[in-house]
Amino acid sequence: MLELAILGLLHEAPVHGYELRKRLGVRLGGFRVFSYGSLYPALRRLTRAGLIVEDTDQSSPETTPSSSGSWSRRSRRVYRITAEGKERLAELLADAGPQTWDDDSFGVHLAFFSRTPAEARMRILEGRRRAVEERREGLRSALSRAGEQIDRYTRELHQLGLDSTEREVRWLNELITRERAEQQDPPGDEAGTTR
Amino acid sequence: MLELAILGLLHEAPVHGYELRKRLGVRLGGFRVFSYGSLYPALRRLTRAGLIVEDTDQSSPETTPSSSGSWSRRSRRVYRITAEGKERLAELLADAGPQTWDDDSFGVHLAFFSRTPAEARMRILEGRRRAVEERREGLRSALSRAGEQIDRYTRELHQLGLDSTEREVRWLNELITRERAEQQDPPGDEAGTTR
DNA sequence: ACCGATTATATCGGCGCGATACATCAGGCT
DNA sequence: AGCCTGATGTATCGCGCCGATATAATCGGT
Fold first, then answer.
1. Is residue B66 in some structural domain?
2. For the whole model, what pTM was predicted?
3. What pLDDT band is residue B29 in, cutting at 50, 70 and 90?
4. Which stretches does UniProt call biased (Low complexity) (chains A, B) (predicted)?
5. Cα angle vertex B187, ends B185, B190, to 5°?
6. pLDDT over threshold 50, residue A66
7. Higher confidence at residue A125 or residue B149?
8. Which residue in chain B has the smallest CA separation from A134?
9. What does B122-169 look like in DSSP terms, one character per residue?
């Protein structure tokens, strides 16, 4: 998950850890924030795997002359994506496996949807819908045989959750319909799909 | 989290791991399922801490004569809560710390709300509300400064999330109001609070 | 001149997960 | 009798992510 997020962002520009985390926050819109305790180990993991490389930063002062010229900039490790990294990114983007429908994972995937091929988008959306529908059915059946041992509060929480899954299914249906429409009638797109 | 769930269930009756997991599923109504990879280590943790003890099962056949009498029952470890465990449970129930407002943790707490003292209930509910409100504000501000770098899909996900947080806040408000009302006008309760 | 906030990197223990490995037992089918 | 499937039951392993914590330089304000 972090793998996709990091690779996805580094594909756009090389950055250092701290900055990467901030951009991740912007990109996911606070929908999800990763801790440094996840980020730095992940960075090392990806480096070991050869998917990214780190340059010890030596940006000269005049590169970014923000008001005062005095600068020396302490150690910053700037990460850059490699060719293998780009391959891996393509794989991850196109992947629509079961773990992809998790709340968190789905959110991350959505954030890079504009770079995701159309059929992968469909598979991810449909997979997510299936997962949410399953949860919905689980909640429904829990509610129907409720009253027995289940706490009143829990029952109400289930009702809230049920509403929320129903809404998400409707939302996904709209997305999927739109996606299908655009697939056979491509819009005046901003990101030119080759085709 | 598992600590609370396990202690909470064992307080009602001693059971073995497998059964415990099933009951947990019923209790939380599929809202959340714990894996064995979590459960058994947790059981060992609690045992080491002296909060529970394990009896190697030797229930005689006639204790549970379900249709056929033939029985020998292979190794089952039955866990029982100790006095310290009960103390710890009381602590956990009354706790309303920050980690309590997490989705998962909140759900588990709710499942044992009938055993939770009234003021702790209020603190948990209000804390949860605060957390959801914060998330809501985060999403709102993300949406208001959207259009910039954020993907169209992510923006729509934010909108969905925003709706959902708004609904939950309303839901919590109702719960809190009701709670407050019952606090000064106790209902004809089913679970006789000593008082 | 000092002080707090921000920038920046890093590690640690802990928790929960998915995968996997074992066994035993019940029931049904052939 | 033999077999197979599915439920019962316990357990472990590595992995990913988190929260807490440490350290330190630099920046902005007073």
1. no
2. 0.86
3. confident
4. 59-72
5. 155
6. no
7. A125
8. B30
9. HHHHHHHHHHHHHHHHHHHHHHHTTTSS--HHHHHHHHHHHHHHHHHH
Both tokens assigned to B9: 């269930």
In a domain, A162, yes or no: yes
Distance between the alpha carbon (CA) of A162 and the C1' atom of C27, Å: 36
Per-residue pLDDT, averaged over A106-127, amounts to 94
- Tokens describing residue A23: 């951009």
A149/B110 Cβ within 8 A = no
| Interatomic CA–C1' length for residue A154 and nucleotide C26, angstroms | 34
Judging by beta carbons within 10 Å of its beta carbon (0-12, 13-18, 19+), is residue B41 exposed, middle or buried?
A: exposed
CATH at B44 = 1.10.10.10
Residues B137 and B83 in one domain: no
Cβ of residue B161 closer than 8 Å to a chain A Cβ: yes
Quick one: pLDDT band at residue B8, thresholds 50, 70, 90? very high
CA separation, residue A189 to residues A161, A182, B18 (Å): 36, 10, 54
- In chain B, what residues touch A151 (CB-CB under 8 Å)? 27, 110-114
Would you state the pLDDT for residue A62? 40
pLDDT at A73: 55
Q: Residue B58: is its pLDDT beyond 80?
A: no
CB neighbours (10 Å) of residue A165?
A: 20
One domain, residues B93 and B169 = no
Q: Where are the beta strands (DSSP E) in chain B?
A: 15-16, 52-56, 77-81
Residue of least CA–C1' distance to D7: B18
Q: State residue B151's pLDDT score.
A: 80
Q: Tell me the β-bridge partners of B55.
A: B78
B137: alpha, beta or left? (left if phi > 0; alpha if psi -120 to 50): alpha
Q: What is the mean pLDDT of residues B126-134?
A: 94
Query: Which nt has its C1' nearest the CA of B66?
Result: C26
The pLDDT assigned to B195 comes to 46
**Alpha carbon distances (Å) from A143 to A82, A91, A149, A164:** 51, 40, 11, 14
Does a structural domain hold residue B162?
yes
